[in-house]
Each structure stands twice: as structure tokens, then as C-alpha cells.
Amino acid sequence: MSKGVLLFAFNNGTTDYFKMAVATASRAYQFLNLQTTVVTDSNTIVENYFHTFENVIVVDSDNSNRGVDNHIWINKGRYQAYDLSPYDETLLLDTDYLINSDTLLKPFELYDDFMCHNTTEFLMKSKAEQEKISKYSFNTLWATVIYFKKTKKTKLIFDTMKMVQENYQHYINIYNPTVGFFRNDFALTFALRIVHGQTEDMRNYIPWSLTHVDKDVMVVPNKHHTCNESYTLLYDNQTRYKVKKEYMIVTDKDFHMLSKENFMEVA
């Protein structure tokens, strides 16, 4: 069975997601020995980097979404992953996920056909509570890392994500999420609950937490590591009386970088 990585990368005028995809694809090959397919649009593609990818798929992008900073956020259409992936087994990743180990090979060894993260952790900053869809609702699921096989159940999940995106205001009214703009995390959360009759199937969850590095934590590569898998994390912790400078050395650990600018500096 064929295995590979799938990335969606659409530039929006402020962030070069295609170059981020190039970096992520290179690391997927380095640490996982997996080829990558990128989905992009005609306004984004840079032919000089085509050699990095096994396949480049050009689609029409949807520019109708705006994020928290009111910038255009071209994140819709992720439901197309099932139909667009050329692989029997696929790792669908956000482009700002920094691969530093072979950990992402583990889902290929597990028995379920669709897996995502349902819990998170933050490096350097402790956030005890998991993000919830709304104040009194259930935990958010994360579309940052999704593993799937091409099965009837998986197709139903992605078809339901499409239905959620096309009727997003309806689901906003039902679930009352913390923000009103479209997030793939929310679409995934709603879709899985719909598919499972508003219950949970623990087999759909990757059995370790998604690790985030927050925007105000600086990640600096440790140059003496030639494989680019060791980093120093720097954080100015504002205490009651002063700023306490903290640092952490991280090696052989994957993490999701919320600062796109820092990701490009690192990768």
C-alpha cells in the first residue's frame, strides 16, 4: 500500500505557505522517508520548488475566510484531502508542523482508519485546560495532524466536513464556538460527532498529545546538531515583579509552531 504526506498550501499576501510546505516536505523525507504531495492554487505555486514534491495538485482556492487578525486565511477545502490524496494511507499535516523524529510513522502501525489529536500540550507554557468548542461544550479536535486510510468510513468523515463547511453558519448556531470564523479544527470536531451520533470513538484519536509552541516562545536551532532536530526554546515569563527569562532544550520531538515567521526562520 502506498504511503505519503499531503499538504495544503495557499499564500495569502502575508504568509508564504508554499515555502513552509517545501520545508515540511523536506523534513518528511528526512525523518519519515515519505514523499509529499502539495495542494495549492495558481497564485501560489513556485515552479523552482517542484522537485521537492512527488506531486503538485492545483485547485481553485476559496478566499472567503478571514482569521482573528482579519487577514485572508485560505484554509477552506481541506475536505478534499480524501479525493486528492494519491496514497492509500495519508498523513495530512499543517505546513507549520515541525517534524523532528519518526514519531509520525506510528499511526501507520495502528489499526484504525482515521486518527487525529484530541488533546494538546504546550512547551514552556502550561495550559491545564484543553480548548473547548464553547465554554460549556466538548473538547476541540485538531486538524493539524490527521492520518487516514481510504475507506468508506473515512470518506464519510471528509464528506461530512464538506457539509459542515458549506453550512457553517448552521453549525455555528448549533455549537456556538468561541470564534465565528471558519476553522478546520471545528469542522473536523463537528464532523466526527455527527458521524458517531454525537458520541466519541476513542480509536479515532492519536494516543499522544499534539504539542504546540506558542507565538511568544522563540525557537532557535542548535547548530551543533547536524540533523536539525535539536532546538533551544526561549520565553520571557512575565511574573508579578519582573520578567523571568526561561529556556528549554528540545531534541527529537515534533511540535506545531504557532508563529509562522519563527517557523520559516527555523525550517
Topology:
Layout: E1 3-8, H1 17-32, E2 36-40, E3 55-58, H2 81-84, E4 89-93, E5 97-98, E6 114-117, E7 120-122, E8 142-149, H3 152-166, H4 168-175, H5 184-195, E9 210-213, E10 217-221, E11 230-238, E12 243-251, E13 255-257, H6 260-266
Parallel strand pairs: 1-2, 1-4, 2-3, 7-9, 9-13
Antiparallel strand pairs: 4-8, 5-13, 6-8, 10-11, 11-12
Return the CATH topology of the largest domain. Spore Coat Polysaccharide Biosynthesis Protein SpsA, Chain A
Q: So what's the oligomer here?
A: single chain
End-to-end separation in angstroms reads: 30 Å
- The total tally of domains equals 2
Question: What's the total helix number?
Answer: 6
Sequence of secondary-structure elements: EHEEHEEEEEHHHEEEEEH
Structural class: alpha/beta
The proportion of residues in beta strands is 25-35%
Weakly predicted, low-confidence segments: none
Mean pLDDT: 89
Largest beta sheet, briefly? 6 strands, mixed
Task: Choose one word for the global shape.
Answer: globular
How are strands sequenced across the largest beta sheet?
Answer: 3-2-1-4-8-6
Report on the structure:
It is a single chain. It is built from six helices and 13 strands. By secondary structure, the protein is an alpha/beta fold. It has two domains: 3-212, Spore Coat Polysaccharide Biosynthesis Protein SpsA, Chain A (Alpha-Beta Complex); 214-266, no CATH class. It has a six-stranded mixed sheet with strand order 3-2-1-4-8-6. A four-stranded mixed sheet has the order 5-13-9-7. It has a three-stranded antiparallel sheet with strand order 10-11-12. Helix 1 links the parallel strand 1 (3-8) and strand 2 (36-40). The longest helix is centred in the first third of the chain and has 16 residues, at 17-32. The model has no long low-confidence stretch (mean pLDDT 89).
